[in-house]
Amino acid sequence: MKHPNPCLHCKRALRFDRERGWVHTCGGGAYWIKCRTCGWQGSGVEKCPNCNNIEGLRDDHCALPDMQNPIGLDEAMRDEARRLGWREGCRPAVGVSADV
């Protein structure tokens, strides 16, 4: 199933938070985290909820919407994506501002 606003890296659902930008819907974190100790994956935690390990947690990737296939973007999300240099159906050119 395709999620609205899928993450470019993991295809999990994202939402846009006006304070923090794009976050993974599951857990609400901007970073998808993996535990090297037990294999748990998720976001929005400071220690592994499965094995309580802090040192084994590693960032896997940052939430980034797949703008090649935007599904259900609301106007606030489109405005923010444009401000950051994204155009619907394409990726920003290096060094090109969205304000051009």
Descriptive account of the structure:
- By secondary structure, this protein is mainly β.
- It has one domain (14-83).
- The chain is built from 1 helix and 5 strands; from the N terminus they run E-E-E-E-E-H.
- The protein has one helix spanning 75-83; strands at 14-17, 21-24, 31-35, 41-43, 57-62.
- The chain has a 3-stranded antiparallel beta sheet, with no helix packed on it.
- Strand 3 (31-35) and strand 4 (41-43) form a beta hairpin.
- The longest helix has 9 residues, at 75-83.
Give a concise summary.
It contains 1 helix and 5 strands; from the N terminus they run E-E-E-E-E-H. The protein has one helix at 75-83; strands at 14-17, 21-24, 31-35, 41-43, 57-62.
Low-confidence stretches: 88-100
Overall number of domains = 1
Helix content: under 10%
Number of strands: 5
Order of helices and strands: EEEEEH
Task: Give the termini separation.
Answer: 36 Å
Strand pairing plus helix content: what structural class?
mainly beta
Give the percentage of residues in beta strands.
15-25%
For the largest beta sheet, what order do the strands appear in spatially?
4-3-5
Number of helical stretches of at least 4 residues: 1
Globally, the shape reads elongated
